[in-house]
Specification:
Layout: E1 2-6, H1 13-23, E2 29-31, E3 46-49, H2 66-71, E4 76-79, H3 82-88, H4 92-105, E5 108-115, H5 117-122, H6 127-133, E6 142-149, H7 161-177, E7 181-186, H8 195-199, E8 206-209, H9 211-214, H10 216-226
Parallel strand pairs: 1-2, 1-8, 2-3, 3-4, 4-5, 5-6, 6-7
């Protein structure tokens, strides 16, 4: 199963080096801050970026383009994370431009499809999910979709497993109809106690972790659960 570690804006240089040693032999996708990308080069893990510019090149001070990430060995990149939408007002069109740029250089997009509590309660037809999926360019060869119910991120709320499964099935049906090769992963409220139940959800190919990725003891427990089937 795919396991993505979104480290967000955490760790110093000293602590990130210790973190790298701990995951050195782990088959994961690790996403540190931009300044630490070059510190993750020699492990079993794959390197990912937390974001990319919607501009391919040009005079955009502070932005990082897809080609620049490719040159650092980045193989995967988050697009449309809930925090980018909430704090930076990113739109579906912004996500489309970013996915296009990643496609052009051969970096796999990990496109975050989000759902807030109001949508969970009232959008029974999952229109908001389909609207976000429309941000995927038709020529996309392969994409990873990360479903993020935002009310569960960093919370202790009870996961509605049937609802998560319903969403993942809808996402898969959409991508099959568009003939887009894909994987689908889940993120939100994941811990070592519920990971076995989450593994049973249909159409689930893995997980994206943040709080549980930063806590190394919790991460190792989750990693062992996720990889248990490989040893059978």
């Amino acid at each position: 199963m795919i396991l993505v570690l979104n480290l967000k804006m955490n760790f110093t240089k000293e602590t990130i080096l210790k973190y790298e040693k701990c995951i050195h032999d782990k088959d994961v996708i690790v996403m540190p801050q931009y300044p630490y990308l070059l510190l993750f080069r020699k492990g079993v893990y794959s390197l990912g970026s937390q974001d990319v510019s919607k501009f391919a090149k040009g005079s955009y001070t502070g932005e990082v383009c897809a080609k620049g990430l490719k040159g650092l060995g980045v193989k995967y990149c988050l697009v449309g994370h809930s925090e980018r939408k909430e704090y930076f007002n990113e739109t579906v069109n912004d996500s489309r431009l970013k996915i296009q740029n990643l496609n052009d250089v051969g970096i796999v997009p990990i496109y975050c499809v989000t759902q807030n509590f109001e949508e969970y309660k009232n959008d029974l037809d999952l229109k908001s999910i389909e609207m976000q999926l429309e941000g995927i360019p038709d020529y996309t060869r392969y994409i990873i979709i990360a479903f993020e119910p935002t009310w569960l991120i960093g919370q202790n709320s009870k996961i509605d497993y049937k609802h998560v499964e319903k969403v993942l099935i809808r996402i898969k049906d959409y991508l099959i109809e568009k003939n887009i090769n894909h994987s689908i992963i889940y993120g939100g409220g994941i811990n070592s106690e519920n990971i076995e139940d989450l593994k049973k959800i249909q159409c689930n190919d893995g997980f994206i972790l943040s709080s549980s990725a930063i806590d190394l003891s919790e991460f190792v427990k989750i990693y062992d659960h996720v990889n248990k089937q490989r040893c059978l």
